[in-house]
Amino acid sequence: MRVAVIGAGMAGLACARRLAAAGLAPVIFDKGRGIGGRLATRRIDGLQFDHGAQYVTARDAGFAAVLRDLQATAAVGLWQTDAGAAHWVGVPGMSALARGLALGLEVRQQVQVTSVRKAAGQWLVAGDGWAETFDRVTLTVPAPQVAGLLGADHPLVARLQGVAMAPCLTLMAASHAPAAFHAESDPDAALAWIAADSSKPGRPDGQTTWVAQASPAFSVAHLENDMAAIVARMLPLLCDRLGLVRGQISHASAHRWRFARVTSALGLAFLDQDGALFVGGDWCLGPRVEAAWISGDAMGRAVLNGC
Ligand SMILES: Cc1cc2nc3c(=O)[nH]c(=O)nc-3n(C[C@H](O)[C@H](O)[C@H](O)COP(=O)(O)OP(=O)(O)OC[C@H]3O[C@@H](n4cnc5c(N)ncnc54)[C@H](O)[C@@H]3O)c2cc1C
User: Fold this and answer.
1) Helix/strand/coil (H, E, C) string of 107-158?
2) What pLDDT digit, counting tens, does each position of 43-95 carry?
3) Fewer CB atoms < 10 Å away: N or C end of the chain?
4) Domain locations in the chain?
5) Pocket of ligand 1, candidates 141, 149, 262: which has the most ligand atoms within 8 Å of its Cβ, to mutate?
């Protein structure tokens, strides 16, 4: 049985691993240059930033076991924050966690899927100038992007109407000044999360690298600004908080996540049509990498149940 998995984020990887463990050879398509989706690490001029998910929680026993396995290969480690808490992070960056899960899987990177259609009892997965047929398809793109692939009038799309996702503007900055703290969270501040990325385990030696995430309100208000304008707004806020002046900042850039975090989840692990087309991702259960893993793993099991 041929299965296509659209998206190499945590949900797609969890689904594909479940299928591969049962002897199938799923084909994963991802439009991105890297593997991991929002589990992401950006490298710029020798600097490194986790500009998406900051750390991973593991309340689910199955997901905790996956992380322990990755820890044995040094692809994840524990990050001690100021609050005394220890959080799972990818090593040397968050994307390493995803790459560790992708080992042995067929991932077609930089391949954008533009449509998924039923054709003669199979599923036609198509992109720009190519098309391939599969027996089953699992879609793990953010909920607001499902309609673009299935068509706005697809019955599964109507069932996604209650799902909502908020954007997040993220600032990446570096300085030679030492970090005064590892992480700070204040949901009422314009910069709702500030982390010294370089305080995570296994990061490159050298400068202190910072990641600051704007609050949902700030992100919505400035979402369409160009990157230079976003940096110009966020950097002074970060400098104020760190007690630095602009001249002490050696690098500053920004990233716009249009669909960063789920604010209203579906409440089910996934949706399917006739046990052949599946849609899932973090937006099914909540705004966490762990939720994406649970959804993807559940989709993989459901595909196998129908075999
Ligand atoms: C700034 C930020 C901070 C966060 N912080 C945390 C945190 O600290 N802890 C935590 O647990 N979670 C955090 N999250 C949430 C977490 O990152 C997500 O819940 C999780 O990574 C979602 O995984 P996913 O597989 O469902 O989706 P994604 O990671 O979005 O994966 C979807 C994949 O589909 C691909 N794709 C989309 N459309 C197409 C197409 N047409 N064709 C081919 N490929 C396509 C994308 O390239 C992407 O790789 C954060 C998210 C953001 C953005």
Assistant:
1) EEECCCCCEEEEECCEEEEEECCEEEEECEEEECCCHHHHHHHHCCCCHHHH
2) 999 999 999 999 999 999 999 999 999 999 999 999 999 888 899 999 999 99
3) C
4) 3-39+96-163+266-305, 42-92+164-264
5) 141
